[in-house]
Amino acid sequence: MSRGRDSIKQEAPRVIDIVFDGQCGFCVRTLTRLRRMAHRNVFRLHDANDHQAVLARFPMLAGADTDEAVFAIAPRGEVFRGFFAFRRMLWASPWLFPLLVLFYAPGASLLGPRIYAWVARHRRGLGCAASGCEVQAPPRAPGR
Q1: Domain that includes residue 46, residue range
Q2: Does a structural domain hold residue 3?
Q3: Torsion angle, CA of 103/97/88/127, rounded to 10 degrees?
Q4: 12 pLDDT exceeds 60?
Q5: For residue 139, which of 28, 30, 91, 107 sits 20 to 30 Å off, Cα-Cα?
Q6: For 98-117, how does the pLDDT look when each residue is reduced to its tens digit (9 = 90+)?
Q7: 9 in a domain, yes or no?
Q8: How confident is the model over 124-141, as a mean pLDDT?
Q9: How many domains does the structure of the chain reveal?
Q10: 75 in Cβ contact with 14 (< 8 Å)
Q11: Distances 128 to 33, 45, 52, 103, 138 between C-alpha atoms, Å
Q12: Is position 20 within any domain?
């Protein structure tokens, strides 16, 4: 084995907590696809509709509009909302890196939040509610 390979650290992926509308079929499908594309378990999903559990785990989200946008909480506690939450999620796995081009293209920081806001407002029309279709909300982690 080469010396360079010996020096490479094999670290477990750092998990990003995602707070989202678990009753939104479009949201569930989008996050399920993103998890699959990541090829590793780097996202821990939390249904924003379970307000008590979310606030107990993430007190920094008190007063946040969790019913209007997805939130990503990075391992160091940084909080990202909406478009910027998705952009942060893409850094979680090398398999998602190709999508970063779209999220960092010139003007993306201005246009991206507007596109995200439009999709968020119309998400119910883009997919059925999870309770009314075959898409199931993600299972809760044991002990939560």
Answers
A1: 14-132
A2: no
A3: 70
A4: no
A5: 91
A6: 999 999 999 999 999 999 99
A7: no
A8: 54
A9: 1
A10: yes
A11: 16, 19, 25, 26, 16
A12: yes
Interval 30-57 mean pLDDT: 95
Give the residues across from 20 on adjacent strands.
47
Count of alpha carbons within 13 angstroms of residue 102, beta-carbon side: 12
In contact, 120 and 69? CB cutoff 8 Å: yes
The rounded distance, in Å, linking the Cα atoms of 110 and 68 is 19
Residues of the chain with pLDDT > 70, as a percent, come to: 78
> For residue 71, what are its two tokens?
């939130």
Please state at what angle helix 83-90 crosses helix 108-121, rounded to 10 degrees. Answer: 110
Closest CA to 66 of 48, 82, 78, 81: 48
Q: At 142, which amino acid appears?
A: P
Outline where the chain has alpha helix (H): 3-7, 25-38, 51-57, 83-90, 100-104, 108-121, 123-126
- Asked whether residue 63 is assigned to any structural domain, the reply reads yes
Q: Order of strands, edge to edge, in the sheet holding 79-81?
A: 43-47, 16-20, 71-73, 79-81
Task: Report how far apart, in Å, the C-alpha atoms of 119 and of each of 6, 26, 123 are.
Answer: 46, 10, 6
